[in-house]
Amino acid sequence: MENAINTLRIQNFKSIKDVTLQPRRVNLIIGPPNVGKSNILEAMSLLGGIVYEQTDKFMGSFIRYEELRHIFYNNIMTNTIKIYTEKQKVLLGVKPYDSRIIYLNVDEHTQDEFFARTKLPRVALPEQVDRSLLSNFFEETQRLRYDFSEQIQYAYSEIDESGAYKVPGSPDSVVLSTTPKNSWPIKPYLFSHNTDISKDYGYIFLAPPKGGNLISIIQSSALLRREIARMLKPSGQQLLLRMNDRSLEVIKDFDGLIISHPYSSIADTLQRIIFYLAAIESNDDAVILFEEPEAHSYPQYVSMLGQRIVESQNNQFFVATHSPYLVTEILEQMTRNDTLDTELAIFVAYYEDYQTKVRQLTNEEVRTIRNDAVDVFINMDRFTPAAPDA
Questions:
Q1: Predicted confidence (pLDDT) per residue in 168-177, tens digit
Q2: Which InterPro entries did the record assign (predicted)?
């Protein structure tokens, strides 16, 4: 995989003060409720989710907040949010001498070109850059769209404290490079009821976050259509696509009479598995983010999802989950295969010193979970640092 993330560092995002991960192809994030697992995925969405944003609120489709300060560590907006990978650098912080907040997402090629031209210190060490130099950096980056060639990739925006976009001198809420949207590999997916799935964005992949082009993906994927047909067959139903009005229905033959129902009326658990399978099957060389994909799902479908995640070897996955079915299926598939064994990482999130911390399980601990049938969710304390004695 060209786009896989091998190093991820998150600083000052919500409950995360400073966390560094060494991801692999399949990454499971587990832990008790309310320790910040979803915050890891929300922080990762800053690496590219903004190009798929569908609201007037900064990252409103991907990050839960009421006021923008709520996404900063301890609600202190001078704690600049930093998301680093070996390929990208994201900064979200207060603009020097201004009340606006800057969002800056720059790929390494843009950085190389920028620093070669401006001779400024590396933004990889922002604490070494004084406020005036940082201000110049933001202003220069905003002009990159006019200076550099198409292969340069960046995203820039300015936001007020409510989350509304305020980019001076631009008709757009976000200033983007001219690279196509499918060149942004981060794909955060969030299933939502009553989503309009008839849209056509021109993507060959399911549109993050809610799959608004699901009909297009089903229409173009024979594999997905066969899978849906197999799941509907026990109930005697079939999928009907009305091409003229781009609607999806489920039909059945009742004594020679064809009866149809809207797709939205089928079981929630079936809609969910179709959504997640569409996300997996339609992507290639993507970094896919799933938050609790097992919610309201039939155990058989959860196991199916785990199997597809394992089989999708040209995508990278970050999955926050509470499901023993999903974890067990992925463990069974990957730990018994010497090749796949090294592609699995399990991260245990926990809360300590008023912040989210993460510990990656060793290969031996992962194998112990499988071999000893240890229910990792019941024995979570076994894999986190012991609390100090009172």
A1: 655 567 777 6
A2: ATPase_AAA_core (IPR003959), Bact_Antivir_Def_Nuclease (IPR051396), P-loop_NTPase (IPR027417)
